[in-house]
Known about the structure:
CATH class of the domain at 104-218 and 266-287: Alpha Beta
Radius of gyration: 33 Å
Largest sheet: 7 strands, mixed
Number of strands: 11
Distance between the termini: 82 Å
Shape: elongated
Low-confidence stretches: none
CATH topology of the domain at 104-218 and 266-287: Rossmann fold
Strand content: 15-25%
Structural class: alpha/beta
Amino acid sequence: MADRYGTDVLSGDWRTPRRGRSQDLPASRGLVVEEVESGWVGAVVRVEKAGGIHVVHLEDRKGRTRGFEMGPGFWVDGRPVTLVPDTSAAQARLAEARQATSRTASGSRAVAAAPARVASGSRIFVEGRHDAELVEKVWGDDLRIEGVVVEMLDGVDDLAAVIRDFRPDPQRRMGVLVDHLVPGTKEARIVEEARAVPRFSAYVKVLGHPYVDVWQSVKPARLGLEQWPTIPRGTSWKHGICAHLGWPHQSQADIARAWKQILGSVRTYADLEPTLLASVEELIDFVTVPPQE
């Protein structure tokens, strides 16, 4: 049956303006808007806050700029909008910060609330305390997740004997990081002999870096240097570095404090030289190979 009175004129959202209701719109740079009261049309060039009020500056096609109080009273493509501050840049910075904190110092994805893991049989050996502390600072989180322990050798002069004592096997691998591993050095000869130890060689990986000391694997820019200085023969390398930097170096305690300052300058893997990074990462991969059944 036809409705003799027609539709209800009050049904629906009859209060809606002809152009629609105003919608919030971020005042992003380059957005073209019209200020309704003045008829000024221009692109957003900047937003500033003055006296507690946000002001949006619009540049017209002739290059002229005017400022207007941010809020309602603008049109975009013939529809009313309420301009609000553009927070996309701040949100991007926040997202970047959150992403950074979700990574370990080595750049790996952090595992939240990971339970303690029993140490595996595999080990990574390093020459001394400073090497161990640097590996711990950058790769410690990763190694704890994998259950890999870092041990100190106190030098590599008898590396072959250390390998025989450790007796590596498919379930108990051994990685070794050696300082100053360059062709023709004493270290190179020692490593060559160690790699050839019968029966265990398949389960041992010995890698190194070319630096005289692990200190040198920290990028010099972290200490305000363009490059690490060359220390004359006959001078202790660490003492020579401290002297160059103007740091005390008369006692072992001075050297320890110097190392703490250098170690403290390291924030993530990006502060270390690529040669060291490659060796440590490869050793971690080697000792974390799943045991063969």
